[in-house]
Structures are given as C-alpha cells and as structure tokens.
Design goal:
alpha+beta, 3-stranded antiparallel beta sheet
Length: 401
Amino acid sequence: MKPFNRVLQCAALLGFLLATPIKASLADEAPTGFDGLSNGFILQGDYDHDQELFEKRHTVAGGLGPVFNAQSCAECHANPVAGGGSQVSVLRAGTFDGKKFIEPPGGTVIHDRATDASLQSKVADAWNVRTQRLSTNTLGGGYIEAIADETLLKIAKRQPQQSNGEIHGQAVMVDLIEVPGAQRVGRFGWKSQHASLLSFNAEAFRSEMGITNSLFPSENTANGRAVDEFDTMADPENNGWEVALLTEFVRATKAPPRDAALAAGADAVAGEQVFEQTGCGICHTSTITTAPVDTLVNAGTFKVPAALGDKTIHPYSDFLLHDIGSGDGIVQNGGPSSRNKLRTAPLWGLRTRSRLLHDGSALTVQQAVKRHQGEAATVMEQLKALSAVEKQQLFKFLDSL
C-alpha cells in the first residue's frame, strides 16, 4: 500500500472523530426529507405560509427589476421541492490582467433580464473571465448556519495533516450585513461569500430579483449604468419582513435525504469506505455536529434553537474554499488567492442534480469526479488505482446521496 494511502486511511478515521464536538454521540440526527414538512423550527402552518412567499412571483409593481435574473426564489430553487437546487445558472464576468482580478462596472453579476430592452446587460468582449454558476440547494440551510465557526476552522486546520500538506481549505471571514463591522466564517454561495442566511437571502433579493431591502438598499445597475429612471417604486421596496420570513423558511427546511434503499445496499456501504479511504472525505466532510442549543451566532443576532442545535448532519462538505482546478476566476470575499477556489460542493442531494460542478459543465458524477485536480490531485491518483469493483462501489455510494 502506498504511504499516502496509509495516511489517508488513518486520517479518515481521525477526521471522523474530530469532525464534531465531543457531544456528537449525544446529538440527534437532523431530520431529512423531500416532504415539504418543517424541521420543527417553526410550526407547519407558518412553514406553509413562508413557502408561499418563497414561491411568490414578483412583478414590477412589487419592486421587481429594473434588471434581474428571476421573479421568485423558487424559480431557481425548486428541485425536487421548494428550496432545492435547479438547472438555472447565473452569469458572472470580469477581467484578469495577469496579476489581479478587476470587477466590471456594476459588479460581476451580469443580469439576464430587464424590464426595458435598453437596460439589457451584456458581457464586454474585453472581459476575459466568464462563468456560469448553478443555483445552489438551500435545503438544510439552517443546520449549516448553526455550525460553529470553530468547527469549520478545526476542519481547515487538520486538512494539511491528513493529506501530507496537499489539501488546505480556506476559511473565509466575511461581513455580516445585518451587523456592520461584524464577521463570521462564510459558508453560503459558491465562494462562501455569506455566513448568515439573512445576509444571503437579502442579497439574493436585490441581486437576483432587483428588489432592494433594508440590508441592500441600492439598486442593481445595468453594466454600471444607473437605472433610476426605470425604477417606479421608492427604495427600498421591501422593508425587510419578506426577507425575514424567507430566511425563516430556509431555516425550517429539512436536510436532503439519502435514497434509503440504495444506501443500505452492500455496494453503497462498501463505497462509502472507499470514499473515505481514498481521501474524498477530507474535503467532502461526511459528518458535522451543529453548535449547542442556545449558542449565539451571527454576532449575537441569532440564538441556535433546539430544532437546529446539537444536530448531526451529513452534508459531505467542509464549506471551505479549495482549488481543485475547476475555479471560475472570480474574486469575491476571499482575496486574490481565492480567484480559482470554490466552496466544496455539499453532496447531500447529489442524486437530484443533472448538472454538476459550479458551471454545470459536468453531466455525470463520473465526469465531475474526473475534473478534480489541484489540491485533489493525489486523491485522484488513489481513485485511478481502484479496482473496477471498488469504482463501482464508490459510484453506487455517490448515487445514494
């Protein structure tokens, strides 16, 4: 057996033991399901009401636009139930001059829709960084938000030890928009650009639907051009209550479930061992325990409730940034070094996705796995050395997620 493989096998066991606080054995499993039921954070009636808002189709009279990408949250997050991912992608662009990334006028998001044809945003020929980003799954987002910063930082700290220094996730400290001056470890978005669901949802309201709110009161621009003359409503159009209820909805969603029948099969069980032994689990962390009940997070603005605290989850992600050779070249909150890094894609709910990687360019799980290089190069060598049976077992396991 190769030395690196021995290190990985030991690291897999060590990683499992260190992935969660000591209380992990006392923690309850987080509820999972694609059933449209609350995880207990709010009553089912409130959940149903919030889901209606999540699926609400916004109009110009309600503040939509003038430039935007979608008319509702569910337009991008709906598979297989409200809150899941989708095939819908967002276009981003910019310029890399050989030394640094330069954001275009109006920001990196190039809006695909406008309320007036004269406002249509486009990519300039000179912008040499161009990428699509698939809409992410938001199911189970409340559990992700409830992970303590210390837990993610510990995962990042041990990764070099688990991989002979080859894997080193970047924990990005990002601003909490709702608490000026406060920061927390990012975990939402392809660049882990947000740490709280309130920040994440408030920006999506403004950036994706063009609806300003108390946290993001300034309108999008059309490639940097002001849109004031096309804006028929006073800003902010949303006083914050709808964003708050949408955040409540996401916090109340259950985590994506596995295919129970497939997961119980011998091949999937063996495949999970292959997954850990080859080092895939170093980044795609299988088990994490959320912060204890009543822990204050988001700079003290959110107390972790019993429905979200002390819960064992299986996201198969460390929520850190890594360079695996498939980066999009965009810099957001992570500094220049993050240009070609992306958040480890959570694999829970993987079976519900028909397009993979950040840009949807991989159409099969096998293709997505083969695209891993960079920090994952040595792990890829381990995968290539697997027998045909072991590979079959590995992909059967992935098919169960």
